[in-house]
Design brief:
808 residues; alpha+beta; eight-stranded antiparallel beta sheet; five-stranded antiparallel beta sheet
Length: 808
């Protein structure tokens, strides 16, 4: 679809100029400066809400080059851009007050699968589970595992150097990236892969942006090697964001992918990736170890890892997450693996083993189980085995869903991700978490915990009410203390989910090495246009290096955890009565589970059909929240209006009709009202309620959609088709008497055009010539009316079928 500007209300004039120039430059994707798209992409899976100026949906790499080429022009150096994939980041990585560049909508093709070489070529918008579904027939898979794998894109995984379960065996995303095709600011294509010294010489000799970035990166690794070695801790998760430690590979080659993986779009746009893929293990077993207390599960990590059986991964879940799972339908599928006994289970470790030889796997599992029985360092309740991928998938499915259920804890305080991917040496994890819990307990905060004990990463989500300014202030207090605590234990604040707005802590962690990161940023992005404020700011020519001064240095160009607008700041503008009356929408936490790519999954068919985020449950919930806020700011009492609407009656309808008529004509003349954009999003909902059943936070679009439409149509006339469809049930008995004429009319082209045009109805069904009652009687079936059901005998009831019209 050719790009169009559409509704440009509230977009800055300078950005409108850029968008118009982009259209003139031949941009073939979509440009969305409308308030609806901007509102939906103002949030991700974090605390923050940052309204962009517009959203760009490039169609291919040429579009990315057009964006980058235009942004590098002197007149557009104030334009900032942030690439976006699935929007699953927990630290605002893809949020910006500039332009969002969303590659997930169109750039999502798997370009090549080379089974013999075990490598694939994909566009940046490909979903991780989408890729693994395509690889499964060949017995292959892309290894880095994520709890958001059904909506996380490969480009997003590259941007955060993502990893999760099994990272001790499989590593991080960068360990599986063979080649990246990126677009530099200015439009040059950058192809990166491990290169020899001779190839590096040729790249550095180039007189363009590609040569510039290679020259700076080589000079950094060659001159700062010892400082880099001393700064980067020897952790499995290493350090996300400009991974200088791996610029030189073990065999001496130079690999610029190490800094692009984890750069969060602050250096270039990722267009394509060549990835290595692995054989799916032929046989797998999961040992489910149960504990009376969660700290016992953490203290057991050292003993579990000491086993000679060498497990693939060790995952842990605390009592809060377990209790949420037990209250959800998902527990029925895994209860057999966690039997009830005399002691309550308040913590589990899930220990996975994989092997291509079933006998060798059985021997390893048996050795591990003997180890559990012989080791008495920690008290364990017991263990069970889940054997085969089907059983294991059920257990991991429970863990994944339970993580999402954290967002649905009742009450205003809900667990939030902002200090939840710290990494420390695994042997220090239990002591570290003891202090972590103490600082949360001192503030009276509840929390959920889960994570990867083999990697020393535990996801801790304290429960806060971000509408309460006092709770919002705790973000700063807790973050500062946790940052200091991780440094005390030789760990990192960002072990898995990237830096984002937490980049303010980078100077303290990197110390004298931080200016080196700034030099690298300057080589790629000299004017700070690519996702500015994240990871590092460009070091300007002639700027003094102040990072080694004894006074703690703060980079003023970085975003801060309390300097970016939060959702809570907007939510507290909504009247509490209105908030509680629309709880089916307002508690959406942005986890994006509704973005599930799988066409066979029940979640939201309108999202899957359109691939437009405004038509997803998260999108509709975001629009509803913003609409409620804007109504309140305009001094419109939505709660009171809704109450009056319910008691309006026919006389109230007649009284309001002239005003509705005036408003409707004003709308047709193009009068601005955000309500119309919300209406367009709600109108596509099929009311199937898959969201209410599948969303871990129980977002219920049909419920708040009906609330919205009730108020919307108190201001604007309903379309004629609503009345026709609404009255169809009463008209059918009459129409059935003229079935041949009715069906003939529907077959007339003029009637079809009339229905499709001004009325808006297409594919209207024909009527059958005989009613259901007559057809049943013709088949010898006795038909009873509802009034006679109570007079049926038990024998008759046993042979009866009750047909309920429109049961939904």
């Amino acid at each position: 679809m050719i790009a169009h500007l559409g509704n440009t209300e509230r977009v800055g004039a300078d950005y409108l100029h850029f968008l118009e120039a982009l259209v003139d430059a031949g941009f073939e994707g979509e440009i969305a400066p409308d308030y609806a798209n901007r509102t939906v992409l103002a949030t991700d899976n974090s605390l923050y809400q940052y309204l962009p100026q517009a959203v760009l949906y490039p169609r291919h790499a040429d579009d990315l080059q057009r964006i980058a080429r235009l942004a590098a022009r002197h007149e557009f150096r104030h334009v900032v851009l942030a690439p976006r994939g699935g929007g699953t980041g927990t630290n605002g990585q893809s949020l910006t007050n500039g332009l969002v560049v969303d590659v997930s909508k169109h750039m999502n093709a798997i370009l090549d699968i080379n089974v013999e070489a075990r490598r694939v070529r994909v566009q940046a918008g490909v979903i991780k589970d989408q890729l693994n579904a395509a690889l499964k027939p060949y017995g292959l898979f892309f290894a880095p595992e994520l709890s958001t794998s059904n909506r996380a894109t490969i480009g997003g995984m590259v941007a955060t150097d993502a990893s999760g379960q099994g990272s001790c065996e499989y590593g991080k995303t960068r360990d599986h990236v063979i080649e990246l095709v990126s677009v530099l600011l200015g439009g040059d294509l950058l192809v990166t892969r491990p290169v020899s010294e001779a190839e590096l010489d040729a790249l550095c000799a180039r007189d363009d942006a590609v040569g510039q970035v290679h020259r700076v990166a080589r000079e950094i690794i060659d001159s700062e090697r010892e400082r880099i070695r001393d700064t980067f801790p020897p952790l499995n998760r290493c350090l996300t964001g400009y991974d200088l430690a791996h610029l030189r590979t073990e065999d001496g080659r130079f690999n610029l992918n190490s800094v692009l993986c984890g750069a969060e779009g602050s250096l270039a746009f990722t267009s394509e990736a060549v990835l290595n893929v692995l054989p799916i293990p032929a046989h797998s077993t999961l040992v489910n170890v149960r504990y009376a207390g969660f700290m016992d599960a953490l203290r057991d990590a050292k003993a579990l890892m000491a086993s000679s059986a060498t497990p693939t991964s060790i995952e842990t879940v605390d009592d809060m997450v377990l209790s949420l799972a037990m209250q959800d339908f998902i527990w029925d599928s895994v209860a057999e693996f966690f039997p009830e006994g005399d002691q309550a289970v308040n913590g589990i470790n899930l220990v996975e083993f994989n092997d291509d030889d079933p006998k060798r796997l059985d021997a390893r599992v048996a050795a591990f189980c003997r180890h559990l029985e012989d080791d008495t360092s920690v008290k364990r309740i017991g263990y069970t085995l889940a054997e085969g991928r089907e059983q294991i998938a059920r257990v991991y499915g429970m863990r994944k869903r339970a993580v999402g259920l954290l967002g649905n804890i009742q009450g205003e305080r809900r667990p939030l991700p902002f200090v939840e991917d710290t990494a420390v040496p695994p042997e220090h994890l239990a002591d570290y978490i003891t202090e972590f819990r103490a600082l949360l307990d001192a503030r009276g905060l509840s929390y959920g915990m889960f994570g990867h004990v083999d990697a020393g990463v535990l996801h801790v989500r304290p429960a806060l009410d971000m509408k309460d300014p006092a709770d919002e202030e705790l973000i700063r207090e807790v973050s500062d203390e946790v940052a200091a605590l991780t440094q005390k234990y030789g760990g990192l604040l960002w072990g898995e989910h990237g830096k984002g707005v937490r980049s303010e802590y980078a100077p303290a962690f990197f110390g004298p090495l931080y200016p080196t990161l700034r030099r690298l940023k300057a080589a790629f992005d000299p004017h700070n246009q690519l996702n500015p404020g994240k990871i590092a700011t460009p070091l300007k020519e002639g700027e003094a290096d102040v990072s080694e001064q004894p006074v703690k240095w703060v980079d003023p160009g970085l975003l801060t955890i309390d300097g970016v607008p939060t959702r809570g700041q907007f939510d507290r503008q909504i009247d509490e009565r209105v908030w509680q009356a629309h709880d089916d929408a307002v508690y959406c936490n942005g986890n994006g589970a509704c973005y599930n790519y799988d066409p066979n999954d029940a979640m939201c068919p309108s999202w899957k059909a359109t691939r437009q985020r405004i038509h997803s449950p998260k999108g509709r919930a975001s629009l509803m929240r913003e609409w409620l806020r804007l109504q309140g700011n305009a001094d419109i009492d939505v709660f009171d209006e809704s109450q009056r609407k319910r008691t309006e009656g026919i006389w109230g309808f007649i009284q309001n009709f002239p005003l509705r008529l005036i408003n409707t004509f004003a709308r047709r003349r193009g009068a601005a009202d955000f309500s119309h954009e919300v209406y367009e999003a709600m109108a596509g909902c099929l009311a199937c309620k898959s969201c209410a059943g599948q969303c871990p936070v129980k977002v219920n679009v049909p419920t708040f959609r009906s609330q919205f439409l009730e108020l919307y149509h108190s201001r604007y006339l309903r379309p004629l088709r609503d009345y026709l469809i609404g009255g169809l049930e009463f008209m059918l008995p009459t129409l059935s008497r003229i079935t041949p004429f009715y069906n003939a009319a529907l077959g007339n082209g003029l009637v079809d055009k009339l229905l499709a045009g001004p009325i808006g109805m297409v594919d209207s069904p024909r009527l059958s010539r005989a009613g259901l009652s007559k057809q049943l009687k013709d088949w010898g079936v006795e038909v009873a009316s509802p009034t006679t059901l109570g007079r049926l005998t038990e024998a008759q009831k046993a042979k009866s079928v009750v047909l309920v019209q429109d049961a939904f």
